[in-house]
Amino acid sequence: MSIEALLYLINVIGNLGDIFSVLLGISLIVSIATFVFFAVNECTNARATSGWQKEDYINSKSASFKVFKISIPVLLISAVLGAIIPNEKTMYAIAFSHYAKQSEIPEKVLKAIEFKLDEVVKGVCEK
After folding, report:
1. Which of 71, 78, 106, 110 suits a disulfide with 23, CB 3.0-4.6 Å?
2. Coil vs helix vs strand at 85
3. Closest CA to 32 of 21, 43, 24
4. pLDDT of residue 53
5. C-alpha span between 96 and 1 (Å, rounded)
6. Band of pLDDT at residue 127, cut at 50, 70 and 90
7. How far apart are CA 13 and CA 28, in angstroms?
8. What is the CA radius of gyration of the chain?
9. Which residues contact 21 (CB under 8 A, 6 or more apart)?
10. Which residues have a Cβ under 8 Å from the Cβ of 57 and sit 6 or more positions away?
11. How far, in Å, CA of 41 to CA of 37, rounded?
12. Residue 72 and residue 77: Cα distance in Å, rounded?
């Protein structure tokens, strides 16, 4: 894979992490709103006297439960994927380390460090 394609892929995956964060926030808000709706509806049902009020309560409760059933898996999946996908800086560091291992640069750097350490050791030993 070329370095350009890898950098583009890192950018796209970094944006996916942001999308999952937004989905997590939205599904959390929807879950809380649905829970509050359930609590308010329970109070309303206790005061419902006629048949049509109870039927409206049952229909609204069914619709709320469907929304709740959808929002919880979205919440969990977004949280897991948001935690698993690394941020852009981490992906850039991984890509750099991968390409640095494949090049001759690390070997040259190690040789230069070794050479400088030998000079320092010789200088310390002579004193």
Report:
1. 78
2. coil
3. 24
4. 59
5. 13
6. low
7. 23
8. 29
9. 78, 82
10. 41, 44, 45, 48
11. 6
12. 9
- What is the token pair recorded at 24? 């997590």
| pLDDT mean over 79-83 | 82
Q: What share of the chain is helix, strand, coil (3-state, %, to 5)?
A: 90, 0, 10
| Separation between Cα atoms, residue 88 and residue 14, nearest integer Å | 5
Contact call for residues 20 and 86 (beta carbons, < 8 A): no
Residue 44, C-beta contacts closer than 8 angstroms, at least 6 positions apart: 57
pTM over 0.70: no
Which pLDDT belongs to residue 42? 66
Find all residues with CB under 8 Å of 92, minimum gap 6, and list them. Answer: 10
User: For the chain, what is the domain count?
Assistant: 1
C-alpha to C-alpha distance for 71 and 24, rounded to whole angstroms: 9
Question: What's the token pair of residue 50?
Answer: 């006629």
Roughly how many angstroms between the first and final C-alpha of the chain, as a whole number?
52
Residue 62 has pLDDT above 60, yes or no: yes
Enter the tokens of residue 88: 């852009």
Q: Which domain holds residue 29?
A: 3-126
Residue 87 and residue 17 in contact, taking contact as beta carbons nearer than 8 Å? yes
